[in-house]
Design brief:
Blueprint: H1 9-24, H2 33-57, H3 59-64, H4 80-101, H5 103-124, H6 131-151, H7 156-179, H8 181-187, H9 192-196, H10 198-222, H11 227-249, H12 253-280
Helix pairs in contact: 1-2, 1-6, 1-12, 2-4, 2-5, 4-5, 5-6, 6-7, 7-10, 7-12, 10-11, 11-12
C-alpha cells in the first residue's frame, strides 16, 4: 500500500502504454501474446524502478512542496533505504529481463533508465531548466524499445515515435511547472517558467505540440494504419494545438490545467490508435 505510490502509477502506466503500442505497431499481439506479457513485465519493472529511485533521490524536494509533501517517502512512512532497495531490485529485474529477451531491446530499456535516473534526476534536474530534454529522451525510450523488439531493429518509424514522445513531454511537464510554479520556486528547482517566463514557456509548448503531432501522424502513415485512425490522430492533434494557442492568446489557470489534462489524454489515446491500427494491419 505504501510502496505502490512510489511508482507514480499513472505516469508509469502511460509510459508502459507507449512501449506496448510500439511493439503492437510491428507485431500482432494476438499472435504473440506471451511475448507481449514479457514485454509488459520488463517495461513495467524498469520504468517503476527508475521512478522509485527518482523519488528516493528527490525526497528532500518533495518534503518542502505542498503538492508532494504527503508522499510516503517525504513524510517518513517509508524509510529511504527501503525505497532504495525496492528501486534497485525493480530496475535490475526489469533491465535484466529485457537484456535476456533481446540485447537490442535491453540496451534501449537501459538507455531510458540511465537518461531518467542518472542524467535527468541525479545530474541536471537541480541545475538547469533544460533537464526536461533529457527527461524527454528517457520518456521516448519505451516506445522505441517496443518497436525495436517487434522489428528486431531500430527503424525510422521507431525514431519518429520516440520524437513524438520527446516533443510531447514539454506540453505535459511545462504546463505542470506553470501550475505549481510556487512549489518549484520553494524547492529551488529551475523550470522554464522561472527561467524564461510564462509567455515564452507557452510558445515552447505550442511549438513542441506541433512537432509531436507531426511525428506521430507521420509514423502512423508509414506503418499504413487505416485512414480512420489517421484522421482521428489528426483531430486529436488539432485539439492539442488549439488549446496551446488559446493558452498563449488568453492565458489562464483553467486553460493551462486543461491543456495539461488533455496532453495526457492525447498521448494515451494516440497510443490506443497506433495499437489498434497495428492490429488491423
Amino acid at each position: 500500500r505504501l510502496y505502490w505510490p512510489l511508482t507514480k502509477s499513472l505516469q508509469t502506466t502511460l509510459l508502459l502504454s507507449t512501449g506496448l503500442a510500439g511493439y503492437m505497431s510491428a507485431r500482432c499481439p494476438v499472435l504473440h501474446w506471451d511475448t507481449l506479457l514479457s514485454l509488459t513485465v520488463s517495461l513495467f519493472l524498469a520504468i517503476a524502478g527508475s521512478t522509485i529511485l527518482n523519488m528516493w533521490y528527490d525526497r528532500d524536494i518533495d518534503a518542502v512542496m505542498n503538492r508532494t509533501h504527503h508522499r510516503p517517502l517525504a513524510d517518513g512512512r517509508v524509510a529511504p533505504i527501503e525505497a532504495l532497495r525496492l528501486g534497485l531490485i525493480c530496475s535490475i529485474l526489469g533491465v535484466g529481463m529485457a537484456v535476456r529477451m533481446d540485447p537490442l531491446y535491453g540496451l534501449i530499456v537501459f538507455a531510458g533508465w540511465f537518461f531518467n535516473v542518472v542524467i535527468y534526476t541525479l545530474w541536471l534536474k537541480r541545475r538547469t531548466a533544460w533537464s526536461i530534454v533529457w527527461g524527454g529522451f528517457a520518456g521516448g525510450m519505451p516506445i522505441l524499445a517496443g518497436r525495436a523488439y517487434g522489428m528486431e531493429a531500430v527503424d525510422g518509424v521507431g525514431i519518429l515515435f520516440a520524437l513524438a514522445v520527446l516533443f510531447w513531454i514539454p506540453t505535459h511537464i511545462l504546463t505542470f511547472a506553470m501550475r505549481y510554479f510556487d512549489d518549484y520556486q520553494t524547492a529551488g528547482i529551475p523550470t522554464f517558467p522561472s527561467t524564461y517566463g510564462f509567455q515564452a514557456t507557452r510558445f515552447v509548448i505550442a511549438f513542441s505540440s506541433v512537432i509531436a503531432a507531426m511525428a506521430i501522424i507521420a509514423a502512423g502513415m508509414l506503418i499504413e494504419i487505416q485512414w480512420v485512425f489517421i484522421w482521428m490522430l489528426a483531430a486529436m492533434s488539432a485539439g492539442l494545438f488549439l488549446l496551446a494557442v488559446v493558452s498563449i492568446l488568453r492565458p489562464s489557470e483553467r486553460i493551462n490545467f486543461g491543456l495539461f489534462k488533455y496532453a495526457s489524454l492525447y498521448m494515451f489515446s494516440a497510443m490506443v490508435m497506433v495499437s489498434l491500427g497495428g492490429i488491423s494491419v
